[in-house]
Amino acid sequence: MGHPAPISQPPGASTAAPRLRDRLTIPVLASGGILMAVMQTVVVPLLPDLPRLTHASAATVSWMVTATLLSGAVLTPVLGRAGDMYGKRRVLTAALGLMTVGSVMCALSCDIGVLIVARALQGAAASVVPLSISILRDELPPERRGSAVALMSSTVGIGAALGLPLAALVIQYADWHTMFWLTSALGALGVAATWWAVRESPVREPGRFDVLGTLGLAAGLVCLLLGVSQGGQWGWGSPRILGLFLAAVAVLALWWWQQLRTERPLVDLRLVTRPRVGLSHVAALLTGFAFYANSLVTAQLVQAPKATGYGLGLSIVATGLCLLPGGVTMLFFSPLSARISAARGPRVTLALGAAVIACGYAVRIADSRDLWMIILGATVVATGTTLAYSALPTLILRAVPAAQTASANGVNVLMRTIGQAVSSAAVAAVLVHHSSLVGGVPVPTLHGYLLAFAMAGAIALVACAAALSIPGDRPSGDTRRAGGATRGARDEAMEGA
C-alpha cells in the first residue's frame, strides 16, 4: 500500500519538535507499559471491600480480575496481529484508549455488571508491551534497541510494584472511585502522548484479517483460562470445569488445523513450531508461572495474622511497600540485562534470570519469618524476572521477520499470561490443602507457603533448562537486512493523516 508523499517543511522551519518527539519515544512507551501494569493491579486492594460497596457476592466480584485476565489473553495476540497489518501506533493508541474508557466507567459506576465490563475493556491494554516492543524494533538503531526493549519488558513488574501501594493509599484516604479517576487522567495523558511522540511504523504485513482464526482462538482461550481460574471455586472435578477443558482442547485443535490451512493466519504456526520461537514461548510460560507465585504468596504471607506464629499482620499499604524494592530493582537491572544479552546472547540472559528466580525462592524457603529476609527473597525473584522478561522479546525479535514482530511478541505475552493463570490456580490449591483454623478462620500454614515456594523454584529451574535448549540466537543475515530496510523505510515514509 502506498504512502503519502512527504510534506516538506517551509524554509527555516524548526526541527526541534520532531527531535523532541524522537527523544520522548522510549519514555512514552515505557510509561504506557507501567500504566498498563498499574491498571491491572489497582483493583487488588479493593477486592475485600467490593462485595459491600457493590452489594454483590464475593464470587461475582472476583470476575473483576477474571474478566481482565480473559480479555487480555484473547486480545493480546489479536491486537498484535492487527498492529502488524494496520499500524502499530494506531492499534497501541486504541488499546490505551479502551483501557482509559474502562477506567472512566469504573469511576462513574457502583454496579458490578458495569464494573466487570469495564475491567474487560481494560484487558486490551495487555497488548501495550508487545506492540511497543515492535515499534522499538522498527524505529531504533541496533545500538539502542536492546536497552529499550529490556526497559519495556521490565515495565510490567515496575507497574505492578507501584500499583499495589498506590491503590492502597488512595483507598485508605479517599473514596475508591478517586483511584479510577486518577488512572483515567493518566490514561488520557498516555493516549495523547503516544499519538504525539510515537511515529507510525511503515512496516506492514498486507493481507486480509483472519476473523475465523480470531474467533476460534478467543473461544479456546476463554474455555481454557476460565477453567483454570475458576477450578478452585467450582471444583476441579466438576462437570463445568471438565467440560470447559474438553471444549478448550477440541476448539484449539480445530483452530490449529484451520491456521495451518489459511493463507494469512492470525498466528503463523509454522513460525511458532521452529525451535528458536517455540522454546522461547515455552520458557515464557514457565517463567510466568515462577514469577507470579512471588507476588501472590508474599502478599498473603506478610498479611497473615500474628496468631499463626509466622504472620506479620501487615496492612495492605505495608504489603505494597514490601514489594516496592522489587519494582525498583527491575528498573535498575533492565540495562544490565541488555548488556548481558549483547555480550552473551538473550538465551544466556533468560537462563540466568530463571536461575536467579530459583535462588530467590531458595531464600524464601530458608527464612520466611523475618521481614527483611522476605523482602530480600522477593527482590531476588524480581531481579531474576527482570533478566528473563527482558531477554524473551529479544529472542523473539531475532527469530521472526520484522513484519511479524507484534503478533509474535503478542503470542509470547499470551504464554506468560497462561503461566500466571496456572500459577495462581496451583498456588491456591496448595495453600487451601495446607491450611489450619486460626480464630475459626482457615489460614494457610507456613508449610503450605514453603511448598508453594518450592514448586515455583522447581518450575524456574525447568525454565532455565528450556532456555539453554534454545538454538543459537545470533541475528541472521536476513534479520539484519530486514532491520536496515526498516530504518530506511522509516526515513522515507510518513504516516498518513
Describe the structure concisely.
By secondary structure, the protein is mainly alpha-helical.
List keywords for this structure.
single chain, 497 residues, mainly alpha, two-stranded antiparallel sheet, 77% helix, 2% strand, globular, disordered N terminus, disordered C terminus
How would you describe what is shown here?
There is one protein chain. By secondary structure, the protein is mainly α. 77% of the residues lie in helices and 2% in strands. It has 19 helices and 2 strands. The chain has a two-stranded antiparallel ribbon. The longest helix is centred in the first third of the chain and has 32 residues.
Write the layout of secondary structure elements.
Elements lengths: L15 H26 L8 H5 L3 H4 L1 H24 L1 H21 L3 H11 L5 H12 L2 H32 L2 H22 L13 H24 L4 H22 L8 H4 L2 H29 L12 H29 L1 H21 L4 H29 L5 H29 L1 E4 L2 E4 L1 H23 L8 H16 L5
Antiparallel strand pairs: 1-2
- What's the shape? globular
What is the chain-wise order of helices and strands?
HHHHHHHHHHHHHHHHHEEHH
Figure out the total of helices.
Answer: 19
Largest sheet: 2 strands, antiparallel
Spatial order of the strands forming the largest sheet: 1-2
- N- to C-terminal separation? 15 Å
Low-confidence stretches: 1-14, 475-497
Given helix and strand content, the structural type is mainly alpha
| Quantity of strands, as a count | 2
Give the mean pLDDT: 84
Portion of residues within helices: over 70%
Strand percent estimate? under 5%
Radius of gyration: 22 Å
